[in-house]
Amino acid sequence: MRRREFVILAGGSAAAWPRAAVAQQRQSTVPVIGYLNPGGMPADDAHVALTAIRQGLREGGFVEGQNLTIEYRWAGGQPDRLPALAADLVRREVAVIVTTGLIAAMAAKEATSSIPIVFLTTTDPVELGIVASLNRPGRNVTGVTLISVEISSKRLEFLLELVPRAKTVAQMVNGGNPAAINATSIREMADAARALGRQSFVVEVRSERDFDAAFATLAERGADALFITSNPIFGGNRRRILTLAERFRIPTAYPDRESVREGGLMSYGSNVTTSYRQVGAYAAQILKGAKPADLPVHRPTRFELVINLKTARALGLTVPVTLQVAADEIIE
Q: HSE on the CB side for 204, CA within 13 Å?
């Protein structure tokens, strides 16, 4: 090799070294957050929770694939896998763990007392020991509660206005939940039904394979209306539930407006998209240095009633004018 060529090559390599070192340094400083979900991985990116969480992160200055990496862990509807998945994220030394559902939050809390955890849950995280209090959660955990269990009575009232003939109301819960979680939801529903002079019973599902049998049970036991609780297993199987509710002609109330927009009868609850965006926003604040203990557990201040008139007509139901006026959204 000629001396001139060697000098040029050597100079070029030397110049490349600092650039490579800088690139490697930048890559090493990109924060990594873990996402722990008890459900199955969605078929595409059009996942309500993920889209909203990413939006909250983006509004906080973090964009996946640019200055942020997300490690995804899905339990596939098998909650017993969550502790191992949470432990894996801890070994990965992620900067924050974001969880969906209380079981995932509990698994993450058991796995680490130092890595910040941001959860979204539908129940009271204080009652179940996830945080010390809503205003001062303490230690390394904070998040968002939809408090949808506590509004069960109002949701049932709206459903019975739509289906006044209903004498028996069923509630569908995730049988894979710890007993304490389901007990609160079941108690609230049973008390609300009793106060309104209705009978109630519960059907459980543990995986996507259970939905057909669950709806067959609803028909056999004469359920006049169905109440779907907030849980990742139901969000992940939304289309299946909607199809079965239509096939069995069971008027059904959902916890989220997305189900109603896709053909469900009605929903009453907080805006799930807004809540998931808040989870992303909290994760972004923590990445910037905020401490979970200083971030109050976020609670919704507004609840929305959404009714699908087309579905009501298909079920032979007449939506009272008073209910149409009270609705935040009417879907034709």
A: 11
| Adjacent-strand bridge partners of 266 | 253, 307
Quote the domain boundaries for residue 121: 29-147+272-294
Dihedral, CA atoms, 161, 163, 166, 171, nearest 10 degrees? -90
Q: Indicate whether 164 and 233 sit together in one domain.
A: yes
* Token pair 């609670």: residue: 299
Token pair recorded at residue 184: 């609160």
Residue for token pair 């779907």:
228
Residue 7 located in a structural domain: no
Q: What are 80-103's pLDDT values in tens digits? A: 899 999 999 999 999 999 999 888
Element (H, E) at 308: strand 304-308
169: three-class secondary structure by DSSP: strand
Q: Is 0.85 surpassed by the pTM of this model?
A: no
CATH of the domain at 234: 3.40.50.2300
Partners of residue 142 on adjacent β-strands: 118
